[in-house]
Amino acid sequence: MRYAAIVLAAGFSRRFGGDKRLACIDGEPMLLATLRNLQLALAGNCRADLQVVLRARDAVVGSMLMGLVREQPGCLARAPVWPVGMGVSIAAGLDVLLERGCRPDAVAVCLADMPFVRPETLRYLLLAATAETICLPVYGGRRGHPVVFGKAFFAELSKLRGRRGAEKILRAHPQAVRELVVEDPGVSLDIDRPEDFHAAARRDPAGRTGTALDTAEDVLLAPPWG
After folding, report:
1. What is the rounded CA–CA span in Å between residue 165 and residue 90?
2. Which of 141, 146, 78, 148 lies closest to 112, judged by CA?
3. 176 vs 211: CA distance, rounded Å
4. Per the database record, which ranges form the MobA-like NTP transferase domain (predicted)?
5. Which residues of 99-135 are buried (b: 16+ CB within 10 A; e: fewer)?
6. What pLDDT digit, counting tens, does each position of 146-167 carry?
7. Which CATH class is domain 3-202?
8. How confident is the model at residue 122 (pLDDT cuts 50, 70, 90)?
9. Any idea what DSSP says for residue 224?
10. What SS3 class is residue 108?
11. What is d(CA 162, CA 176) in angstroms, rounded to the nearest whole number?
């Protein structure tokens, strides 16, 4: 099996009141914390291609990720200016991934605002995947993220549009869905508002803490990738 991960990082954080991708986890912007976890998950027997989807115009975060670009040329994709939404971002990320010549058997769709997912959880989901399955984690009886789609569903992912994600694909193929129970609260710690962020930081099993970055200059002074 060959794998890839698409990181959705093109949102506008309207409910957060600021750019939540830059909210700080122990001195590191949330997006970088998420990507570092992914790097750990994709190492070893889950080596995979990485595709990060940013906004069409996103200079600050684009600059922050230049080290990643040097490591993996072509790994940044830009979502269309309009329409915006999770579905469009998934389609844009997958299209660029395939245009780069990557040919994964399964793709993990990951959210940039979920930095507390353990690397071993994503590795477990990937290794359980086949080309014909959709694997997702379940914690405390609730479905979470990331979700791993086999290549049988790539055509449908590429046609997604609008604000919603891939829920309709899961509804259309219930027989392909594999719910994998995990002992990882991070799969359900979705951060939409400042109170979500601070609650998630308090619950993080790794004991990390969260604060807010105030300015773009703070982000540009963050530790470089790698």
Report:
1. 8
2. 146
3. 40
4. 5-174
5. ebebebbbbbbbbbbbbbbbbebbbbbbeebbeebbb
6. 999 999 999 999 999 877 779 9
7. alpha beta
8. very high
9. P
10. strand
11. 24
Relative orientation angle of helices 30-41 and 119-128, to the nearest 10 degrees: 50
**Identity of the residue numbered 56:** A
Task: Give, in order, the Cα–Cα distances in Å from 134 to each of 154, 174, 212.
Answer: 11, 9, 35
Angle, alpha carbons 140-143-148 (nearest 5°): 130
Cβ neighbourhood burial of 45 (10 Å; 0-12, 13-18, 19+): exposed
The structure tokens listed for 94 are 């997958």
> Where are the domains positioned within the chain?
3-202
pLDDT at 218: 36
Which tokens sit at 152?
Answer: 């049988």
Report cis status (omega within 30 of 0) of the bond before 73.
no
Over the Cα atoms of the chain, what is R_g? 16
- Distance between CA atoms of 108 and 3, rounded to whole angstroms? 8
Which residue from 14, 33, 226 is spatially nearest to 119, judged by alpha carbons? 33
Beta strand pairing status for 3-8 and 48-54?
Answer: parallel
